[in-house]
Amino acid sequence: IDYVARKGMSLIRVSFKAGRLQPERNGKLDPVELARLDNVVQYANSKGLYVLLDPHDYGRLPDAEKTGQKIGSSGMPASAFANFWAHIAAAYVNQPNVIFGLMNEPNGISAKTWQSSAIAAMNAIRTVGAKQTIFVPGVSWTGAHSWVSSGNGATWAHFKERNFVFEIHQYFDSDSSGTHDTCTVNSAKNRLAVFTNWALANKQKGFLGEVGWAANADCMAEADAGFTHMDQNPSVYAGWSYFGAGWYNGFMTLNPIDLGKSTEEDRPQTTLILKHIQ
Questions:
Q1: DSSP characters for 83-133?
Q2: What DSSP element (H or E) covers 79?
Q3: Helices 268-277 & 217-231, crossing angle to 10 degrees?
Q4: Strand order in the sheet with 98-101
Q5: Is 220 helix (H, G, I), strand (E, B) or coil?
Q6: How far apart, in whole angstroms, are the C-alpha atoms of residue 76 and residue 58?
Q7: 149-203 pLDDT, tens per residue?
Q8: How far is CA 121 from the centre of its chain?
Q9: List of residues 6+ apart from 238 with CB closer than 8 A
Q10: pTM for the predicted model, two decimal places
Q11: Under DSSP, is residue 128 helix (H, G, I), strand (E, B) or coil?
């Protein structure tokens, strides 16, 4: 957190498991887990950072037996998802550096079913008085490249809310998964353009909540093109966050070499990022 703050970044995305924070559906938040999360929120706040809260459950919540059930199903109705977010929003109603990210990468759910649950959660957040920005993902892992083909585009085209953006994710490897250290030529601009064109046509705004790439020349070139595309469309993109740092130390990591030592060295990805935020 200290590192990204002194590099001039403004936001961290903090992932957590919904079932740890709210062990029983429609129950209270676990005070121990909430304290763990809050330690991060308050420390980030002391460094001038926004915190995007991210239940990392792919469109599912645990039931009483702790098995994940799809949100909007008979076993996990939209009302349970709304209750979950009402509790979180109440805990952070007076914390302006907090952003509410409804869910990481919903999948296996129809766009319409997900929309009903997402709207229920948004209404619950506003009902408790929270005014912070809400990040709304789509289904099909909320990919920018699949925003239209997945049904997200048609479902959300005319949606309005007082303070929200759509959260999209996009990687530049062959299948947009972010699991390969090679990148497809022209993938960044072409894949982001699917969402960009939709957003321009429908007067909507987005946030690229996950993007990352390997440090080789091809991937660095794609990333540069992707950031240039977003820079050229400021009416569409409210910002972006990179995957990842901290606990994540894979081939896309931003964790510097020799953190905190006199020999500390930025990753090549960080150098590229700084080019586009300074």
A1: HHHHHHHHHTTT-TTEEEE--S---SS-HHHHHHHHHHHHHHHHHTT--S-
A2: helix 78-91
A3: 20
A4: 11-16, 50-55, 98-101, 134-137, 164-169, 206-210, 237-240
A5: helix
A6: 14
A7: 999 999 999 999 999 999 999 999 999 999 999 999 999 999 999 999 999 999 9
A8: 16
A9: 165, 205, 206, 207
A10: 0.96
A11: coil
What is residue 174's DSSP assignment? T
**Listed residue (120, 122, 196, 128) closest to 162, CA to CA:** 122
176 Rama class: left (phi>0) / alpha (psi -120 to 50) / beta: left
Give the pair of three-digit tokens for residue 133.
């920005």
Active site residue 65: no
Active-site annotation holder among 161, 210, 264, 265: 210
* Residue 82: closest CA among 110, 117, 128: 117
Per-residue model confidence (pLDDT) at position 51: 98
Tell me which of 24, 65, 105, 161 is the catalytic residue.
Answer: 105
Tokens of 191: 């894949």
Specify whether 210 is catalytic.
yes
Rounded CA gap, 11 and 158, in Å? 28
Query: What's the token pair of residue 96?
Result: 């302006």
